[in-house]
Amino acid sequence: MDIRQALHSDHFKTLDTQGLRDKMLVTKIMVPGQLSLTYSHVDRIIVGGAVPTDSPLTLSGGKELGVDYFLERREMGVINIGAPGRITVDGETVELGTHHGLYIPKESRDVSFESLDATKPARFYINSTPAHVRYQLRHIRPEDASPTTLGDPETGNVRTINKYLHTDVLDTCQLSMGLTQLEPGSMWNTMPCHTHERRMEVYFYFDLSEDDVVFHLCGEPQETRHIVVANEQAVIHPSWSIHCGFGTRRYTFIWGMCGENLTYDDMDFIASKELR
Ligand SMILES: O=C[C@H](O)[C@@H](O)CC(=O)C(=O)O
Ligand SMILES: [Zn+2]
């Protein structure tokens, strides 16, 4: 696993472009035939992807976490952004179409990821966080994900926020996750932006062509920087950082949060004119 240390805002200020990318950007997520995981010291979130081709991919690596098996003391959220696939958790198989999600509870021992058709693989995006209670395995279909459409064409940010791992949908220990889809012609997400000192957040951008990018904004509100993000890359934010962006074209992203609370609306909004 790629290990990322936590980043202090004083250090953040001193970094150049490559330095920022090395600390915050995760580029190795969707690798055909592989399970790729990055471990962040920020609230110990694990971020990654599984792209099964000819054979199933199995979650292993308990040793790296100092436990007997991966989810011994963790929970996991998965959203499939590829073709249909299936996930088997301790003998129970769930078929996940495009944009279907799965919550896998603590103490799930055997977890494997498969594509229905190896030539059109599933692309499972994964977030996992420490957990201390075992809740229920749960399949979340896009229509279950509590959609809210907001924004305005005038401000270029018409988008639908789908909340997959959210208190209205299911119980989790600390992980929240959802998928936000922008309408054609809308390029901005999360503007006006916010921080939430109580939770860290990871943004994973996808549905971008080879030629398109997202200018992702991060940093303390009065000390912002941008990171140019390509398709299927993620940015890890400590809780002091804003997180928002604009694309060269519309895109979709998955957000995942963990920390002190599960209160989606617990955000401190920042007036755009206050940003520096
Ligand atoms: O804390 C919540 C997260 O930053 C996202 O859910 C915001 C988002 O999807 C959006 O405004 O487009
Ligand atoms: Zn946020």
From TrEMBL:
Cofactor: Zn(2+)
Any one GO BP annotation for this protein: D-galacturonate catabolic process
UniProt organism field: Vreelandella sulfidaeris
Keywords of this entry: Isomerase, Metal-binding, Zinc
Domain of life: Bacteria
Catalytic activity: 5-dehydro-4-deoxy-D-glucuronate = 3-deoxy-D-glycero-2,5-hexodiulosonate
Family: Belongs to the KduI family.
Cofactor note: Binds 1 zinc ion per subunit.
UniProt xrefs under SUPFAM superfamilies: RmlC-like cupins
Enzyme class: isomerase
Molecular functions (GO terms): 4-deoxy-L-threo-5-hexosulose-uronate ketol-isomerase activity; zinc ion binding
Binding site for Zn(2+): 194, 196, 201, 243
Keyword Metal-binding: yes
Taxonomic lineage of the native organism: Bacteria, Pseudomonadati, Pseudomonadota, Gammaproteobacteria, Oceanospirillales
Name the record gives this protein: 4-deoxy-L-threo-5-hexosulose-uronate ketol-isomerase
Entry's EC annotation: 5.3.1.17
